[in-house]
Structures are given as structure tokens and as C-alpha cells.
Specification:
By secondary structure, the protein is mostly helical. It has eight helices and five strands; from the N terminus they run αββααααβααββα. The strands form two sheets. The protein has a three-stranded antiparallel sheet with strand order 3-5-4. α4 packs across α8. The protein is globular. The two termini are about 30 Å apart.
């Protein structure tokens, strides 16, 4: 599936939410636990970082760090911010996050006590990951550029179905076709699990900074 994408052979395939896991080398199962997925991802991250050599360090599998005066678990914080509206987590975002964090830390030229990568570097890296993700999708789906632009400057990430219809008034595609395309790009998360037929949607953290949302508190 990593090479051919989601192949439609029956109606049920249209509403599937595929996540590409081949790169993890996991044994094929009908379902996986969150622990299985987290362990496999950390294994790959550890191997990747160690192979990068000088300038990279794999300190621990679960590292707690302080961000905006609050403790957070690094892997959970990261997973929340690289997950799209379909629940997909892809290696490209992991790799970009690692590279951008290192670059941001080198620019800061100072380290927090007992911390290789500072909270400020992590924050800058996430902003760049979000911006790159939006730009990448706009290059792949140029007809949605005006739809993406309608979210810029908004102070909320949550919208009802009707609010999105009003916000996108006058653009093509519109209505259900518009919602389906935004949902299938992963830019909208269906809050009640009804795919693009849902009545409540939220823009995932992965897209918020790249879309220019102006939100209070954490992005």
C-alpha cells in the first residue's frame, strides 16, 4: 500500500482510514494496541537517530520535559502534533521534526540545564513542520488553496458542518464534495467518527500553525 496507495476494490474501501505501517516492520495483525505502535515507532526513531551520528542523541525511550512550565511526555506530545485528521502518523513528519529541532537548537546556541534540545527549539521545529505540511498538501491539492486560505486568522479550530459551508461560500468545490476533499486530505478531523458526513469537525494540531490559525494557549 505504501507504493500503490489505498486501492478501491469495494465500497467499504472508500471510508477506510489507512495508516502506512510497513516501514515499522511489524507483524501483520487484524489490530494493534497503542503500546505496540509506540514501541515500534520508538525503535525506529532510536535506530534512525543513532545512525545520524554526530549532533544527535537518543537519551531515553520516555523522556519527560518542561514546556511552558508544565511537564509533558515527549512521545505523546509529538504524536499529537504530527497526526492528521484521519489518524495518520507518517515518518516524514518524524524526520522533519528531528531535523528542524536540531537546526533550531543550533541557531539558539545555548542549552537549557540537563536538556539537549530546548523547549524553544521544539516549539520552533513544530511550527516549521506545520508550515511544511500545509505547503506540501497545497502543492498536491492546488484546487483547495482558497479553502485553506479561508481559515487564516481564525481564532478557533472547531467548526460545525454548517459553519464550514458558510466559511467556504462561493468556492469550488463546495458542499459535501468540498467537505469530503478536506476530510480525505486529513485537514479535518470528524469528531463523531462519521467521516465527511459528520456534523462536527476540528483542524488537527498538525495544520493549525501552517494554516495561520490564531488560537489562545497551546497550538
Amino acid at each position: 500500500m505504501a507504493k500503490k496507495g489505498n486501492i478501491i476494490t469495494k465500497p467499504e474501501d472508500i471510508v477506510k482510514q489507512p495508516t502506512v505501517l510497513e516501514f515499522l516492520g511489524m507483524e501483520e495483525k487484524t489490530k494493534y494496541s497503542e503500546t505496540d505502535l509506540e514501541t515500534a515507532i520508538i525503535d525506529k526513531l532510536q535506530k534512525f537517530l543513532l545512525e545520524m551520528g554526530k549532533g544527535y542523541l537518543f537519551e531515553s525511550r520516555q523522556k519527560r520535559f518542561t514546556f511552558r512550565e508544565k511537564e509533558a511526555n515527549m512521545i505523546d506530545w509529538l504524536l499529537q502534533r504530527i497526526t492528521d485528521g484521519l489518524g495518520g502518523k507518517y515518518p516524514r513528519e518524524f524526520i522533519n521534526f528531528a531535523n528542524y529541532s536540531k537546526e533550531a537548537q543550533e541557531e539558539l546556541e545555548n542549552f537549557e540545564e540537563n536538556c539537549l534540545i530546548s523547549g524553544m527549539a521544539v516549539k520552533k521545529a513544530f511550527s516549521k513542520v506545520s508550515e511544511v505540511k500545509c505547503n506540501t498538501y497545497l502543492s498536491e491539492f492546488p484546487k483547495l488553496r482558497q479553502h485553506f486560505d479561508r481559515f487564516r486568522g481564525k481564532d478557533t479550530a472547531r467548526y460545525s458542518r454548517e459553519e464550514i459551508f458558510v466559511l467556504m461560500d462561493g468556492l469550488e468545490p463546495q458542499g459535501d464534495d468540498m467537505l469530503q476533499e478536506l476530510y480525505e486530505t486529513g485537514m479535518l478531523e470528524a469528531k463523531k467518527g462519521k467521516a465527511f458526513a459528520d456534523n462536527s469537525f476540528e483542524i488537527p494540531k498538525l495544520y493549525r500553525i501552517g494554516l495561520g490559525l490564531v488560537l489562545r494557549g497551546k497550538p
